[in-house]
């Protein structure tokens, strides 16, 4: 009879996850997400909306509703690896329910926490090879970082917000490439470079994408700048060598 989370609302939960032998594989004292956004396992997506604030529930999840057929490797949000096709028992405490985060004014520290949490969830999906889910989590992280704040961030908070944005955008580019979306990946790289013009990862990836598009002159400028920042990089040397060979006229017989 109590109030349960409505569609679009954000929840915070305390989560413990264990294998059948009792081994703890997940521990998060405050996991925040919006059910339906797809950035947590389905057991939580489906189970938490049935709960009331303050309620403690146990969800026994078959592997499709946990970490799937492949299981998962170690990541920041969990303890050890989850074996393939492993059912899990989740103990979940619903701590808080509130309206979705986008229209809310949150302090910069809260935006940083939310953005970092969603980026880590994206990293988890990426490590499992679920690149579409990873991309959703990275985009949600950016929405959290870019949302309105209560008062302007201080210099240190603003610097950290920018660093988090750069990480998320670089990760978006990596996921887009895995999904075969070169144009979107290029746009993400360019967004990174608007924030951090000397970001080596974005420069290299942008140069590689420009080479693939046949924009050799632009690619050469970008890759040379990347090489100035990292002269020892074998990858950048190889890209420039490949580009030089492509631009060399064929020798006459």
Notes on the protein architecture:
It is a single chain. With about 250 residues, the protein is of the alpha+beta class. The protein has 2 domains: about 10-100, Chitinase A, domain 3 (Roll); about 110-240, Serine Threonine Protein Phosphatase 5, Tetratricopeptide repeat. It is about 50% helix and about 15% strand. It has helices at about 40-45, 110-130, 130-145, 155-180, 180-195, 200-210, 215-230, 235-245; strands spanning about 10-20, 25-35, 55-60, 90-100. Strands 2-1-4-3 form a 4-stranded antiparallel beta sheet. Strand 1 (about 10-20) and strand 2 form a beta hairpin. The termini are far apart. The mean pLDDT is about 85.
In short:
By secondary structure, the protein is of the alpha+beta class. The protein is 48% helix and 14% strand.
User: Which structural class fits the helix and strand makeup?
Assistant: alpha+beta
Count of β-strands:
4
* CATH level 3 topology of the largest domain: Serine Threonine Protein Phosphatase 5, Tetratricopeptide repeat
Order of helices and strands: EEHEEHHHHHHH
Number of individual domains:
2
Helix content: 40-55%
How many H/I helices?
8
The geometry reads as: globular
Could you tell me the radius of gyration in angstroms? 22 Å
Whole-number average pLDDT?
87
- Stretches with pLDDT under 50, minimum 5 residues: none
Q: Strand order, main sheet: write it out.
A: 2-1-4-3
The CATH superfamily of the largest domain is known as: Tetratricopeptide repeat domain
- Classify the beta-strand content into a percent band: 5-15%
Label the CATH architecture of the largest domain: Alpha Horseshoe
Distance between the termini: 87 Å
Largest sheet: 4 strands, antiparallel
CATH class (first level) name of the largest domain: Mainly Alpha
